[in-house]
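Hi support team,

I'm opening this ticket because the web form for multi-chain structure prediction keeps timing out on my end. I have pasted the exact lines I submitted so you can reproduce it. The total is 656 residues across two entries, so I didn't expect it to be a heavy job. Is there a limit I'm missing, or should I split the entries? Thanks in advance, R.K.
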Amino acid sequence: MTIKLTDVVKSFKNEVVLDGVSLSVEAGETLVLFGPSGAGKTVLLRLIAGVIDPDEGRIEVNGRDMEGVEPEDRGMGMAFQNFALFPHMTAFDNIASPLTARRQNRTTLKAGVESVAKLLKIDHVLGHMPKALSNGQKQRTALARALAAKPNVLLLDDPLRNVDAKLRFEMRLELPRLLKQQNATVIYVTQDYKEAMAFGDRIAVMDGHGIRQVGTPEHIYLRPASTKIASLFGDPAINLLEVRPERGEHGVQVRLSGRAIPLDRRHAASIGHDCLLGVRPETIRFVPEGTPGAVPVEVEAETPLNEKTVTLVWTRQRREIMVSRPSGSIGPAHGRAWIVIDPGHAMLFDKESGARIDPSSDAAALQGEVA
Amino acid sequence: MDTMSPLERVLRGIAITLVILFFMFPIFWIFLMSFQTNETILRVPPSIVFEPTIANYQALLTGRLETAAGTLEIRFMRNLFNSLFLSTASVALALVLGIPAAYAFARLKFRGSEEIAFTLLSFRFAPPLLVLLPLVIYFQQIGLANTYIGLIWVYQLICLPLILWIVRGYFEDIPADIEHAYRIAGHRWFTTFRKVALPLAGPGIAAAGLLAFIFAWNNFIFALVLASADKQPVTVGALAFVTASGIQFGQIAAAIVLSIAPVFALALYAQRYLVEGLSLGAVKG
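Hello R.K., no limit was hit. The queue was backed up. Here is the completed structure from your submission:
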């Protein structure tokens, strides 16, 4: 089923939560709604589920306007962040609730509950009340309930938020396969960029009451629309360095501690403007002294971060730069060092607006002509 | 508890004993009085040594009160039935009206909902005497004076706001997501109300119903003014023991024992719900 939102507006008591949100989700696609808390992700999900109504705008499912359609008639499945299990019913009855609503007979109902419970590995606790379940079992019960009736649309509101790290890791591996099996259109809300990148066919980045960018995980990682989005993806966060592009020998370049870093020549429009150079920590390398274009830095601190090691270095102008390298690879732990920035992976952002300056877009080309 | 020192434990025991004595002694004394004659009750100094008699209970149950001035008809058993009937019916009606209203006030924020809810609560603020006089006149005009229906209606002033406000709090404490989840699963709102909201607010409803029952049972002033002898509850009926030939303390005590017994039994039976209900509502969890 396709889902299409057009100019959806929602406020609570004069406080705007969603300000003209438009979004379309393809049938069978997993779309991740990603953004910091308070961005309106959950509200958007509830609007689609029909438990709250938009102030303005249209919500269509398979081309059908959902206005006035009660949540029970939308045929969706939803898992809540706080699980929202029915505390007075056993796990079995919780999972069975979408099936009883569809008036299935006892045998099909039992078979339906047991198959989804087996899929989620909770078939041994079906007789338990929710308060007797562990957090992980609660979360699986909530997921099973959402899946039980095999809905065409699955709304998952940060289902891994309230479970411990080990379980979250397991579910991160398990859930994408599970969702693919369902053949449903999935909208998945999360605040975790890794989850977003792992689950999403596409990611819609929400911030400040609206959707700021929609694209594949690669697209959003490599071509974020703004410094804000660039900082939300990636750990450690992207380095943002104040620069002013200038004309160099080979076209456009920026200077870092006196060393020229060449940029795409189509960045000519930005020459002389205050910009931010976005460099992902993993695209910076430590190099031996004397490497051409190497920037001298002072190593300030080193933090091992599981599979990678993050080093904080200072340039001569006391700019802080994070460098990330695979753990076990050779790098300086202290003292003087040299780094090279891969210009192919550097991004240029407008300093004032934070918007990425896309050298390939027509807008930049036009600006270039005007300049 | 294990960390308490012996001294603390002793002091705690004394404190609890004092509290129990303070609250339970009058009831205990009434209980003793109900097995005594007027003479043994009124002797000076009072003593707990006496020859027990069941004459008081006999008089109440048979409805014949033997006094120095002769035999007096009393309708205590009738009063007891009236109390039971009036309180039960009032609470039942208040639950039927109050629970859906409480749900509406909790879940649907409609225009003026707070004002209406508060107005209903304000019925509890007004002294009953304030509304009693006009009520008597109206009830006489429309023929509701001295009827069970009229009394049950007036008792809604006691029961309805109590149930409405307590139960509303319970409904508000049920996370809306739980109800949303049931609806998304495909159930109509009324099914959701019946299968999710009502069971989850159950302890609260039980507590509110019990409190309302006790309040209705203890009511005196409405029944005194609006009911004549055959409709009077025990609270008013007890006045009959103040006779021309003196106050029948023994019978009064027996009447009190009999009239608090049902409420006492109910409270004992439901105290689990009462404590659970009243505290669960206060603590979000």
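A quick check on our side: Residues 302 and 311 of chain A are 4 Å apart (CA to CA). Let us know if the file doesn't open in your viewer.
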